[in-house]
Design a protein that fits this description.
The structure is a single chain. By secondary structure, this protein is α/β, with parallel strands linked by helices. It has 11 helices and 13 strands. Helix 1 crosses helix 6 and helix 7 runs parallel beside helix 11.
């Protein structure tokens, strides 16, 4: 097994390190020269983007983290011929639970109706469809990973700035997942050879943004913060921030708990935030 990630961002970095810890030969493609020079893992090779075709030709398993465009997945559009002729027999496509769209706070699983309305989520759906078709036509295993909101080292709301606001929106839910659990789940899927599956990768407890931030407030013993109603601030929100509040759903993770028999390091954001206390 030689796993190649076309991209070496936050998720790929932790995932490849986890795979390497299991003895898997891994390759990462990145435009970040500092990451390439600082790599100290023996069974991890990092290459610049000019080496993408070389990396694909050496790999047996491919991880796709690149965000889609309106045309679909840029990796597939640019390299489909090479991938089809290569030794790639398994592909992991990193998607998002955003594809489900708005379900008004109801529970969604991997078979739930796709209700995407914003452009970025629709692009994800299109990209998933492209990879499904390509893998079926070329007899390649495919696992689609639908990630919830990612948090972890160097990536959590710290309340270190001046704007310590807690936005209140009743009965509005988000589903999260710690990066350590993401890397462990995807590693397990790869090592156990699952094929043609969709996985919701989130922890056990969907919660409001308010509850998440109040847990940070409790852990850090923050006294100076302001609770604001969503209705009062939505007009002044930037477009990307407002999109964050468009979809309301609780994402079910029963499949990874039962079919994958996965045990979380951080079953909820409470355990995860305690682990990150020094960074909050």
């Amino acid at each position: 097994m030689i796993v190649c990630s076309l991209g070496y961002g936050y998720t790929a970095m932790f995932l490849l390190k986890e795979l390497c810890a299991h003895g898997v030969q891994s390759i990462g493609i990145t435009s970040n020269k500092k990451k390439i020079k600082s790599n100290s893992i023996d069974n991890l090779k990092l290459y610049p983007r000019e080496k993408t075709e070389f990396a694909i030709s050496k790999a047996t398993h491919l991880i796709i983290t690149a965000p889609p465009s309106k045309l679909g997945c840029p990796i597939l559009l640019q390299h489909f011929k090479l991938i089809a002729k290569s030794n790639i027999n398994s592909i992991v496509y990193i998607s998002t639970t955003g594809v489900y769209g708005n379900h008004n706070g109801n529970l969604v699983d991997e078979k739930s109706t796709i209700k995407s309305k914003n452009i970025s989520d629709k692009n994800r759906v299109n990209s998933e469809t492209q990879w499904n078709k390509f893998c079926k036509n070329n007899h390649i295993k495919l696992n689609i990973i639908r990630l919830g909101s990612i948090y972890g080292p160097s990536r959590c709301n710290s309340f270190k700035g001046k704007h310590r606001e807690v936005i209140i929106k009743k009965n509005h839910f988000f589903s999260r997942i710690h990066i350590y659990d993401i890397s462990r789940i995807i590693t397990k899927i790869l090592l156990e050879g699952y094929a043609n599956e969709i996985w919701n990768v989130v922890d056990n407890e969907p919660s409001s943004r308010e509850d998440y931030l109040k847990e940070i407030i409790k852990l850090k013993q923050i006294k100076n913060f302001k609770a604001v109603d969503f209705v009062d601030v939505q007009k002044s929100m930037k477009k990307n921030t407002k999109k964050f509040w468009t979809n309301n759903k609780r994402v079910d993770n029963s499949k990874i708990r039962y079919k994958l028999s996965f045990i979380f390091l951080f079953p909820t954001y409470r355990e995860g935030l305690k682990n990150l206390l020094r960074e909050l």
